[in-house]
Design goal:
387 residues, alpha+beta, four-stranded antiparallel beta sheet, 11 helices, 4 strands
Amino acid sequence: MMRHLLKVIHLRWMIIAICTLAALGLAGAYALLAPPVYKSAASVVVDARTAETIGPQAQAERMSPDYLLTLEDILKSNRVAERVVELIDAKTVPRLAENYGWTPSAGPLKEFLASQLLQSMTVESSIGSSRVMQIGFLSGSPEYSASMANAFAQAFIDVNLALQAEPARSAAQAYEQQLERKAEELRGAQQRLAALQRDLGVIDGAGGPSADNVNLTTLATQLANATAAAEAASSQTQAGALPAVESDPVVTQLDVQLASLQAQLAQLGTLAGPNNAQVRQLKNQIATLEAQKAQQVAAARQSKAAEAAQARTVQQGIAGQVAAQMQRTIASQETQNELAQAKLDVAGVQLAYDQMAQRRTQLQVLGESGQTNISILTPARPSAAPV
């Protein structure tokens, strides 16, 4: 096979040589006669730092090759090219339109120039994983190539900033509308709380036990004391419960006198008979003292009964006050529960409003931010030699 191929080349070498020389001649003539083409490139670097975005952006996402490819697609988009047209001096636009052969039938001038400029723009990266992008531009003028390369670099930064700011501004407007509704809801909750406090006659205090609870506790203590006193007084009036009665001073004195007379009677009884005048006199005195003691014990019992009745009356009165205070406390607790729920409603709406207001402010700052993670590393300069 190789032998046949070499044989064919040997037989046709003249034709091959003539064609090769003709192609070289045409290429040389084109190189001498064609206008020179100059290329200038501006270097931009995509920083790996966290960009100002609406949501969090993972480190892996920022380091992904897809991220750089996306940026390259953005750079090659018509939006960047149209931004370049906007950056061009208005006095230069008519001359560019003439140079590129624009006519009204070609469509809007801005879109036409953008498509023409994109054809001369090039994008390169130093290595596959490099975050430095070379934005080049080809033209017949080194100064024009440099200016357009720099314009594309600046337009690339502007468009990326706009892609960041536009969603933030749209989200901020949406939050603004939601804040208006939330503010109206907050005013309604505050008005309901104020109306409830006014209707119930309650002033918002600093917390702690309510006056009704304090009064109920005080009355409960008083009732316990009154109950103990009433039970003690009642026990002293019962049959056989004589210690309190016997401790009466008059009864005690009568007991002393009776003991003395009874001792004398016992001593005299051993010496004299029952008809003895002194024995009869002592018996009469003892009978008199016993009658006085019985009368005094009855009076003491009556006094203790009166004290017990009075203690029960006091107990019943305090018990009535406790029952009434209990009802007031229950009603007060229900009122406090209503107020607590109203306060929780206000606090919940207030918290939601504050969070939305904070997010709205963040989005507004982001929408007006001029920060981006793309920076010009090296601006383009006119090239001395054509490419």
